[in-house]
Amino acid sequence: MASTGADLMNAQAELWCHTFGYLKSMALQCAIKLGIPNAIHRCGGSASMPELLAALPVAASKRPCISRIMTFLSASGVFRQESTPVPSNGEIAGVRYSLTAASRLLVDDDDGIRSDRSTCLSGLMLLCSSPLYFSSSQSLAEWLKEDDEDAVAETPFMMVQGASYYGFVSGDVEFAACVNEAMASDSRFVAEVLVRECGPVFTGVTSLVDVGGGDGTTAMARAFPQVRRSVLELPHVVDAMPADSDSAVEFIAGDMMEFIPPADCILLKFVLHNWSDEDCVRILKRCKEAISTREPKGKVLIIDVVIGSSPSKHILEAQLLLDLCMMVILPGKQREEEKWHKVFIDAGFTEYKISPVFGTRSLIELYP
Ligand SMILES: C[S@@+](CC[C@H](N)C(=O)[O-])C[C@H]1O[C@@H](n2cnc3c(N)ncnc32)[C@H](O)[C@@H]1O
Q: 233 alpha carbon to ligand 1 midpoint, in Å?
């Protein structure tokens, strides 16, 4: 059936939106780098353009660009744009920009006004829009065309940067700090939900190992004061931990592929999506060896994406974008429930329960 003129124009607009999708990412990055969420927050959650310009480090000649960037970010839901009419004649006096639920997550002011500053996700957003991620994703098609026999790069990241993701992280102190801060901000966000919604999961747990637990932010959460907690991490991560780090958490240098210390509960937050099915089975077999298979049985807690866990189109799109991100930077992937099921069975587990409590991610309780 022939398309109408309107269909054709909509189809072209759809293509513009996709092809310029990177500008959506860069506009968000720019707003974070300029400190726009913090500036609006300091104005009480809503700011006029003159108030905003007075607070931002922008050259005078480029000030008009800020209202164009704010118009775009308001149209896409990061901020809210409101026109304020003059009460006497109803004419538009000016425009105010306010924070939305999304941009509130980008405020990191330590001014005591906001009680939930621990949920600031700016670090994570800056990592995911960083030049390393962006330049690697530009080579996706070339990487896909590379014949298996000639292939030396297991990911586009490796093809462009010349090292695997974690190889690169271990050799670049600045990037490692950026990754750690990004993951820590995500862990503070997740830990709050874990404390609020998932308390019963920790009933009876006396010891926990957070495998691939980064700088220990999740293990240090208020959720488990009564639990003996350890973090198993790669040696370079443990070596970089400051000596004064929370003494309630023990850091153990090691390789989760080889050995995981025994505990009632093993936590794997945002770890398995980094790995192939074969590697996940290997890690989960180590987890099974670390927990008790007799009553009271131990458990493995996985916090990761289960594609399709929510009816929300928005959440599904975020899950699928996280899957493409894995394709670009690591040999891992996001999984639907059927794929998780197979990995669990292959690793020797018999029972699991999925709770989609973290929006894009779920809590999976796994039992031997
Ligand atoms: C995506 S990060 C997740 C960090 C943390 N769980 C979080 O969510 O904030 C994956 C972590 O796995 C660690 N890791 C990678 N390979 C590992 C291995 N073989 N043994 C132990 N940890 C490993 C990395 O150093 C990194 O901190």
A: 6
